[in-house]
Amino acid sequence: MRKAVIPAAGLGTRFLPATKAMPKEMLPLVDKPAIQYVVEEAVRAGLTDIVMITGRNKRPLEDHFDREPTLEHALERKGDFSKLAAVRASSTLADIHYVRQGDPLGLGHAVLRARRHVGHEPFAVLLGDDLIDEQEDILAEMALVQAATGGSVVALMEVEPSEISAYGCADVVPGAGDDGFLRIRGLVEKPAAAEAPSNLAVIGRYVLHPRIFDVLAQTGPGRGGEIQLTDALQTLALADGPGSGVYGVVFRGRRFDTGDKLSYLKAAFTLAVERDDVGPGLREWLAATMVPQP
After folding, report:
1. Hey, which residues does 49 pair with through a beta bridge?
2. pLDDT at 232
3. What integer best gives the mean pLDDT of the chain?
4. How far apart are CA 248 and CA 87, in angstroms?
5. Which CATH architecture group holds 137-252?
6. What topology is assigned to 1-132+257-273 in CATH?
7. Which among 49, 72, 124, 266 would be 20 to 30 A from 148, CA to CA?
């Protein structure tokens, strides 16, 4: 597997007014935009051909992953080679392409827009709002499961039952999992807690068989009037033949939802305190300013 799709066409309304003129994917986490962490994760998993699905006002994404000769020349003249290396790193990560989504018809539609670029091979989908700890190799594990099963694979995470209505939810075959993955027999998009078949939430990492494109092309609007990737996976879970079957890998590592304000702030602080340059000072400041709550 060498190709990845990163949907990045959302409006980022939860972060208004900051995202009025700046894509939410460009919100910084210390000194890198959130989207760069996602691209770096894909590259660590061996994915070198990436297509971003974008929309209006997303030009800063293209600019960020492009060369900036004027800035590079200025840094070189100043002898600031550490910043020069950081600036150049983002433009040499991978071969990145951009496709406009056009109409905002949902995640399933965004993935379908990548069909011509992906072709007839398995590929990964990484949602830009999900930040996975760089110590984790969930994509590599999912790629192995896809190769072994020939189907599609989703990343799952156990959540509190009261939180499941914010996610897609997996209905898994009882007793499965001896091979390190679960067989999924059904998926429900954002069910009420009382109606959820499990507390296994689908998070933003997928490894998909290209048959998903045929299914998405025939999938009508679902929840919210959008074409849901979950609905297409539900179809594949019940299908027969090549490319059928959906499997789950349970992720137990560290993950942040950078599309949520509180989780975004937690991600920024966590990344900062673990760095050698700003971590010691930040930890000292936090220790001095934290006031116990009554």
Report:
1. 3, 95
2. 92
3. 90
4. 37
5. Alpha-Beta Complex (3.90)
6. Spore Coat Polysaccharide Biosynthesis Protein SpsA; Chain A (3.90.550)
7. 49
